[in-house]
Amino acid sequence: MNVTRPNRRRIDDIIGWSTAAVVVLGLVFLLLPLLVTSVMAFDERSFLGPMPPPGFSLHWFVRFFSQTYFLVGLRTSLLVAIVACSISLAAGAAAALFLDRTQFWGRGVVLATFLSPLVVPPVVIGFSLLLFLAQIGVTWGLGRLVVGHVIITLPYAIRTALASLAGIDRRLEEAALNLGATEARVLWTVTLPLIRTGLISGAIFAFAVSLDDVAVSSFLTDPTTYTLPVALVSSMRATFDLTIAAASVLLIGVTVVLMFILDKAVGFDRLIGRGMFGR
Amino acid sequence: MTDTVELTDVSKHYGPLVAVNRLSFTVSPGETIALLGPSGCGKTTTLRLIAGFETPDTGTLRLAGEDVARKRPYERSIGLLFQHYALFPHMSVADNIAYGLRHRGFPRQDIPRLVAEMLALVKLSDKAAQRPGQMSGGQQQRVALARALATQPKVVLLDEPLSALDAKLRQELRVELKQVLASVRATTIVVTHDQEEAMSLAERIIVMNHGAIAQQGTPDEIYSRPNSRFVAEFMGRSNWFAGRISGQSGAGGLTFATASGITLRIPAPAQPHPAEVDVCIRPERIDLAWGTEAAEAAAVAPNINQVAGRVAGAALLGADRQFLVELVGGDRIVASLPNRLRSVPAEGEPVSVCFAAEDCIVVPSGV
Questions:
Q1: Can you tell me the distance from the alpha carbon of B35 to that of A53, in angstroms, rounded to the nearest whole number?
Q2: What is the largest CA-CA distance in chain B?
Q3: 0.80 exceeded by the pTM?
Q4: Which residues 35-74 on chain A approach chain B with CB closer than 8 angstroms?
Q5: Is there a contact between B80 and A178 if contact means CB atoms under 8 Å apart?
Q6: Are B82 and A182 a contacting pair at CB < 8 A?
Q7: Per-residue model confidence as pLDDT tens digits over B231-250
Q8: Residues of chain A contacting B90 with CB distance shorter than 8 Å
Q9: d(CA B233, CA A21)
């Protein structure tokens, strides 16, 4: 046995080093483009030049905030995100409670349907929704956007709510029933407080998804109601300049702040590891 | 006076599994009983039926004369101490105890006083503002007990009350638990798989097996006069001889021939019995005689069984010393002597195993 040991150790070493290499490579590909964008957003030149910029200035940000086209988009984005996330949070919590508490034939199908926006291409969702809403006569832009964003954020709300429900001890609810609380009061005084962090993290995740969406939103906008990412994409077609980089830095900033809040509130491992993919 | 708890022919199935099978028993006011049995015997299901978390398939369940089989848990006046306490982690100790008082409609202005009384009862008055997560297991157990007793329920159910604690703490808290229960004079049902817990807490023990009652009686009756091999083995360490009854001995006793060729004197069983029986002797009822004592022991009273053997192993367990003795017929038995004796037989030394005929437990063979 001793003879083979050095060989086996070398294989282990190789596996160890290659995993580390994959991690580093992944980080580079994830972070480098963001880094380039962030640097270029502060470029002092008035045109799109090669890296690195000769000097730094905030003039692209000034340009962004001076264009009402972008500001209208930003306002719509925030409004849609807040409304859609509130609806997703409430609906997601209710659906998760029902799915967690009942066993019925087809439960898996119902759950898969709720989570399907995670796998169905957003273009398909956007186009189908546009077609459907046109058929039933909904032409109100803001309403269409809210409906679309509820659909794409609901899976995140349900997933995190289900994960937190799975994590609570059912005996706590039995204890509350035993102490004289009705089912509704158990929900209010025990269940909801215990899954609160899960609900908050789901809502923040949903908010980030809603804020960043382009594919679904681009089908549902109308000439006066459009979200910021949609505005960025269409302005990029017209004039490709670094205003978009400045807007991207703003979006990255919002996301970083949200993630920071999340990490402080619930811990990142719990959110990514269990909340999103685990159960 | 009506019984506080009355189960009649209660059954509960989970699919093909019969968890509780036509179970009937009563608990009188103020009495403490134990439901004792191995896991899967139906004792936990019985507790959940009484608490209202499960509904019986058949049978009636009365609390103080009222049929509650279809009532919700919050419609029954029952205090429950959960095995792992189930304290609300997001509430302070005081809020945990007040929870039942608030939801059972106690006057708002009385609640702080009642909470303070319960905290004093379990000696945790200084911990009111703490969260359960900051407390030790023993303290959590006392908070859970205070929470269960705060609403002065008609019946208190204790689910494995001490099993989550380590052995040393368990003994302390057992005494404390008994005092607290006695001071509130609650009708109590203890559900446990630990026969020591059952014997020390309960006035009456119901031993359960396969969803039904195997035997019920006082701790003494159950321990000293088990009606089956299952109960005898469950209640404590035991040495078994298989064989058949071979005849009468003096003074109303019988003689018993073991399969290994030893003849023992045994008491006559109270019930009619088959010829094939199992005979059991508890380790602590056995005396060992060795050296010159062995010769003296040979002359003792006729109701003492005496079998020659040899010490095959010995172990000191602190308060007791255990000896593994190989008898002449090849049977091996365990004898337990108090660790008080100045000299003990050495390993390999011939000994004489002595036990009184009346200490032998006789049960039908194979049951």
A1: 80
A2: 77
A3: no
A4: none
A5: yes
A6: no
A7: 999 998 999 998 888 888 76
A8: 193-194
A9: 61
